[in-house]
Specification:
Layout lengths: L1 E2 L2 E2 L3 E8 L5 H10 L14 E8 L2 E9 L11 E7 L3 H5 L1 H11 L5 E7 L11 H11 L2 E4 L8 H16 L1
Parallel strand pairs: 3-5, 3-6, 6-7, 7-8
Antiparallel strand pairs: 1-2, 4-5
The chain binds guanosine-5'-diphosphate.
The site of guanosine-5'-diphosphate has 16 residues, from helix 1.
Length: 169
């Protein structure tokens, strides 16, 4: 957005949450650096990565945090709630993560449910329809992604950003 000659930057905070080992770190890495790291260890602690994006022809910076405590939900406008399509348990826990968001995050937070590891087709344990149904029930956006090959990762983030942008502007 132009304000005189100055460009206005928007900073959107989006948290990436979900069970351990579902691929949060790799999704962040894919989105911010277009990289996938084959021998990464699951990280404990806060991750902070940034990618500058252009939305509707407008520049904005997206700051993404990895939530480990409720303090990190503060100010978050979006949440990527990740499960692993090959681990039923990680999907069964999604309801708890939604509760956590409803308890700690802003009520207008945009939530994207993400079924990650979609490349592992033969190991699928969560049918797409189950997730679609849950997402519709809870009013969440939904996408299946692969941090490994990059499928839908950008699309999912941009969908959330567009929605946030619609909310804040
Ligand atoms: P986190 O604990 O949620 O941050 O999970 P990580 O990002 O550390 O990923 C956990 C494991 O899953 C790692 O061995 C990753 O290489 C692997 N992984 C993450 N995303 C994908 C994916 O999209 N496809 C496949 N096949 N493996 C993935």
């Amino acid at each position: 957005q132009e304000n005189g000659h100055e460009k206005i930057d928007y900073v959107f905070k989006v948290v990436v949450i979900g069970d351990s080992a579902v691929g949060k770190t790799q999704i962040l890495s894919r989105f911010t650096k277009n990289e996938f790291c084959f021998d990464s260890k699951s990280t404990i602690g806060v991750e902070f990565q940034t990618r500058t994006v252009t939305l509707n022809g407008k520049c904005g910076r997206l700051d993404r945090y990895r939530a480990v405590t409720s303090a990190y939900y503060r100010g978050a406008l979006g949440a990527m709630l990740v499960y692993d399509i090959t681990k039923r348990q990680s999907f069964d826990h999604v309801a708890r993560w939604v509760e956590e968001l409803r308890a700690h995050a802003d009520s207008s937070i945009v939530i994207m449910l993400i079924g990650n590891k979609a490349d592992l087709v033969d190991l699928r344990a969560v049918p797409t329809e189950d997730a679609v149904e849950f997402a519709e029930d809870q009013g969440l956006f939904f996408s299946e992604t692969s941090a490994l090959n990059g499928d839908n990762v950008d699309t999912a983030f941009f969908r959330v950003l567009e929605e946030i942008y619609g909310v804040v502007s």
